[in-house]
């Protein structure tokens, strides 16, 4: 699940400043402090950001996550799963005849939940540890006949044939993928004409990432290579990849497992304001579905 900006090379990550309110030294002259230096009574430093420069680093990170069972980090696991699946069903509309490909499937929880709704499901992840977790869950599931999990890189999808998939989903993983152009090109290649690509991801212009966390010096990246996109950046890449019709909706993304309760409460209030005022930057998440060759010219629909 980790990322680099499309077309950009990875750079050594700058250390995130943490505002813990250090006192002034002796009788040093008083100077106007910058926002990053102001003392805040904030005992939370954010997530522990792991340096990451290439696919090997990303694979190692998620193998370590798999070793702990890969528990849900952003809140109540069952409620979040049902919420995400509701968004998938609303925009992508899985069908009983679909071949479904889950990119960055992790421990397989989304694909296992959607398995009864499709003809066949394939989960791929760059992490062998995650794939082993998913296979272990599949062995205890009645869906073993129509689901499979394989180690593969979303940038190449070497194990997936051209025009063999009806629906591709990517939930909470696109922000971690390094070469997003290659990922979208691979998705477009394996989709049948009229096939759908569904993605659920945090948006870069979310007020938490854009303003609040930087102001307070709070780290928000699990991997230094993580890179989120704005709505316009994502849709520009979809156009470039050849997708010709798309829809998007905002969704509530509040990483409650990554922050103290007070910050989560603040974002919950901002989310309610954003929902009422139609301010997507307060909602946190971008949910989109794009079609391959569904329309002769590019069309976008934004639904709030």
Please provide a brief summary of the model.
By secondary structure, this protein is α/β, with parallel strands linked by helices. The protein has helices at residues 55-67, 77-91, 109-114, 128-139, 180-190, 207-216, 231-241, 261-277; strands at residues 99-103, 120-125, 147-151, 165-171, 191-202, 243-252, 284-292, 299-302. α4 links the parallel β2 (120-125) and β3.
Radius of gyration: 20 Å
What distance separates the N and C termini?
26 Å
What is the arithmetic mean of pLDDT? 84
Number of domains: 1
Summary tags:
globular, 8 helices, 304 residues, disordered N terminus, eight-stranded mixed beta sheet, alpha/beta, Rossmann fold
Explain what the structure shows.
The chain has helices at 55-67, 77-91, 109-114, 128-139, 180-190, 207-216, 231-241, 261-277; strands at 99-103, 120-125, 147-151, 165-171, 191-202, 243-252, 284-292, 299-302. With 304 residues, the chain is α/β, with parallel strands linked by helices. Strands 3-2-1-4-5-7-6-8 form an 8-stranded mixed β-sheet, with helices on both faces. Helix 3 (109-114) links the parallel strand 1 and strand 2. Helix 1 runs parallel beside helix 4 (128-139) and helix 5 packs across helix 7 (231-241). The longest helix is centred in the C-terminal third of the chain and has 17 residues, at 261-277. The two termini are 26 Å apart. Residues 1-41 and 294-298 have low confidence and may be disordered.
């Amino acid at each position: 699940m980790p990322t680099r900006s499309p077309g950009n090379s990875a750079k050594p990550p700058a250390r995130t400043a943490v505002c813990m309110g250090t006192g002034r030294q002796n009788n040093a002259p008083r100077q106007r402090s910058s926002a990053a230096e102001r003392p805040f009574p904030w005992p939370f430093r954010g997530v522990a950001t792991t340096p990451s420069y290439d696919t090997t680093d990303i694979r190692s990170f998620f193998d370590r996550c798999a070793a702990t069972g890969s528990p849900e980090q952003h809140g109540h696991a069952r409620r979040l799963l049902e919420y995400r699946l509701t968004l998938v069903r609303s925009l992508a509309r899985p069908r009983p005849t679909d071949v479904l490909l889950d990119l960055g499937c992790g421990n397989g929880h989304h694909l296992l939940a959607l398995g009864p709704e499709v003809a066949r499901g394939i989960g791929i992840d760059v992490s062998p540890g995650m794939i082993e977790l998913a296979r272990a869950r599949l062995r205890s599931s009645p869906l073993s006949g129509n689901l499979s999990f394989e180690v593969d890189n979303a940038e190449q999808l070497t194990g997936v044939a051209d025009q063999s998939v009806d629906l591709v989903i990517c939930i909470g993983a696109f922000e971690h993928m390094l070469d997003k152009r290659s990922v979208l090109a691979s998705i477009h290649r394996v989709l049948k004409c009229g096939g759908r690509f569904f993605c659920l991801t945090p948006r870069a212009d979310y007020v938490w990432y854009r303003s609040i966390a930087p102001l307070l010096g709070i780290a928000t990246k699990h991997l230094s290579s993580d890179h989120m996109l704005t709505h316009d950046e994502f849709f520009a890449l979809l156009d470039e990849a050849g997708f010709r019709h798309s829809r998007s909706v905002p969704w509530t993304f509040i990483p409650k497992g990554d922050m103290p309760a007070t910050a989560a409460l603040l974002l919950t209030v901002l989310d309610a304001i954003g929902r009422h005022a139609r301010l997507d930057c307060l909602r946190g998440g971008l949910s989109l579905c794009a079609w391959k060759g569904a329309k002769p010219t590019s069309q976008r629909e934004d639904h709030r």
